What we know:
Layout: E1 2-6, H1 9-26, E2 31-34, H2 41-52, E3 62-65, E4 67-70, H3 80-87, E5 99-100, H4 109-122, E6 128-131, E7 153-156, H5 159-165, E8 178-181, H6 184-188, E9 192-197, H7 203-209, E10 229-234
Parallel strand pairs: 1-10, 2-3, 2-6, 3-5, 6-9, 9-10
Antiparallel strand pairs: 4-8, 7-8
Amino acid sequence: MKRIICRDAGEVSEIAAAMIAEQIFRNRESVIGLATGSTPEGLYGKLREMYENGDLDFSGVRTFNLDEYYPIRKSNDQSYDCFMRDKLFSHINVKMENIHIPNGECSDPAEECIAYEQMIAEAGGVDIQVLGIGLNGHIGFNEPERELRMDTHPTELTASTIEANSRFFSSIDEVPTKALTMGMGTIMRARSIILLITGAHKAAIAKKIFSGVVTTEVPASFLNLHPNTTVLLDEAAASEL
Ligand code: PGA
């Protein structure tokens, strides 16, 4: 894993946006893997700016999001569908039919996950995947477990993730307890990966992924085995390295 320590979260977003732009310049039909959460919001702001300034064209780009709560209505303002529209998609010229997010409204989650994995394969795989990291080391909703799943699958959220995400809901009881997520294999098959880590509260988990150990207890530690992963950290997140 390549490590870049940035001055602050703004610089993390700038470098991540430049890496995505470079991929789109190389291939205007690139397949971009996207993530939700507070960490990539700055990155989406930069991509919007680049589009508004006429520097970036998303008309050929295809996107696949990492995960979605289950079950959840797309109209629920906490759905990742809504987040992505609000923070990025409704502000750029990406085509609706090129946007993919696991469907939190589906009636058969197992079938939805199989179809999602297949769509990624049919698109030719992900060129560049954006990731955040949970306080417990999760990527997507691949939570720490004895065994990790390879492909897109339905999963249960851990108590720590429900607690962490409750800040977006009016009460913890409203946080969905399940999700649909790309698997570890889906993520590791991306040709390049950018992991964004910002804030002092992420310093301990950042230290763990650079400890030289790969363990299912820290799913993000598997990124050490990926041939083209860049970790962008701000100084606060890098303070224990
Ligand atoms: P955050 O979430 O960016 O809101 O910290 C990251 C994650 O849980 O993957």
